[in-house]
Design a protein that fits this description.
Layout: E1 2-7, H1 12-23, E2 27-34, E3 45-49, E4 64-67, H2 73-76, H3 79-99, E5 104-108, H4 120-135, E6 139-143, E7 148-149, H5 157-169, E8 183-184, H6 185-198, E9 203-205, H7 207-214
Helix pairs in contact: 1-6, 3-4, 6-7
Length: 219
């Protein structure tokens, strides 16, 4: 049975991934790392508090790590604050995971991530992917979803609108645009968990790959 680390478990995808891990017979223990305690108690779960601005203490030995850390520029308040979460905090978590002997590191990134992108959001997502790859994890799986469908704690009007018209848009996204199809948070979360537990090689997963890793195209 596996021991997993998870960061970002207070967010939409991370919360679902955490509960899926706790319910999974393949998982013996989960250590959740976050800036504040989660309102969850479970015999498999141990919580550690960190703001990810300093190196994490020794965590012991773990098999896989799931990273769902992320924010928006609007919520963060500035580009610098956004980068501090979506790049710097991710790398702080990754260094701790590497020190813990993690063999599989699975990350929620974004469709179109590219360190050379002119779009700031996508350039940060691409930069953190690049820097994680340079760390040399035996298996690094990068999930690149398009619009994430699900009920968030905070209201995002643009996302709410796109979720409403999603059934009309997805069928129009074909070929190279298919990667931008919207996808349920539940699908991404199960793909993240399966990647952290059972991926056999490094991969970049877009829309179809995420659905396949989740175990069901209908998730």
């Amino acid at each position: 049975m596996a021991r997993l680390l998870i960061a970002g478990a207070s967010g939409l995808v991370g919360k679902i991934a955490l509960w899926a891990a706790l319910d999974d017979a393949r998982v013996a223990q989960v250590v959740g790392i976050g800036r504040r305690p989660l309102p969850i108690q479970h015999p498999k779960l141990e919580q550690r508090i960190s703001d990810f601005t300093t190196p994490l203490p020794d965590l012991g030995r773990f098999d896989g790590a799931l990273c769902a850390l992320g924010t928006t520029i609007a919520k963060a308040g500035s580009q610098a604050a956004f980068r501090a979460v979506d790049h710097d905090a991710v790398l702080t978590f990754a260094r701790a995971a590497q020190a813990a002997g993690v063999q599989r590191f699975a990350l929620v990134s974004a469709a179109g991530a590219n360190a050379a992108a002119k779009n700031f959001y996508l350039s940060v997502k691409g930069a953190v992917e690049r820097d994680l790859e340079a760390m040399g994890f035996p298996i690094l799986v990068r999930l690149r979803p398009g619009l994430i469908i699900g009920d968030r704690a905070e209201r995002r009007p643009a996302e709410w609108l796109f979720q409403k018209i999603n059934p009309l848009i997805n069928p129009l996204l074909t070929g190279s645009l298919r990667r931008y199809c919207s996808i349920p948070a539940t699908t991404i979360a199960h793909a993240l968990l399966n990647a952290g537990l059972a991926a056999t090689q490094s991969a970049v997963l877009e829309f179809d790959g995420i659905r396949a890793m989740a175990g069901s195209a209908d998730t």
